[in-house]
Each structure stands twice: as structure tokens, then as C-alpha cells.
Design a protein that fits this description.
two-stranded parallel ribbon, mainly beta, globular, two-stranded antiparallel ribbon
């Protein structure tokens, strides 16, 4: 999965047809490899990585319990 901001850009697209006071975004891990002008409002973990690095987030129910850099 890429961290270019593409997923958030496409996820926000349907909301552009509606009148909203604001749209806020949240990410579990922000890798800072942006190709689109999107920056999250809330960040769980911020990591400096290379494009080849892979991050795995382990969840139990609705809680993230670990993040691994592969």
C-alpha cells in the first residue's frame, strides 16, 4: 500500500459534492511520502521511512496494539 495520499484523496471525493463545514482526516501511520496535497489532522504514529519500507499495524478489536517496520 502506498502512502502517497492517493487513498485519502479518493475517499474525500464524494464529499466534494456536499456542503460541509470541514472535513478532518486521521491516519494510523503517517510516512510523509506525499504526492497529493493532503495532510492528516490526526496522526497515530509518524515515521520517516523509505518508499521500499513496509509498515504492518497489528490490531486487536478496535485497538492498534503494535506497528512493525519491515
Amino acid at each position: 500500500m502506498s502512502s502517497s495520499g492517493r487513498t485519502i484523496t479518493y475517499a474525500q471525493k464524494p464529499f466534494l459534492n456536499e456542503v460541509a463545514a470541514s472535513i478532518q482526516t486521521m491516519v494510523l501511520v503517517d510516512r510523509k511520502h506525499k504526492q497529493f496535497p493532503i495532510s492528516p489532522d490526526y496522526v497515530g504514529l509518524q515515521l520517516s521511512t523509505t518508499l521500499q519500507d513496509k509498515i504492518t499495524v497489528l490490531c486487536e478489536g478496535d485497538k492498534a496494539i503494535a506497528a512493525y517496520l519491515d
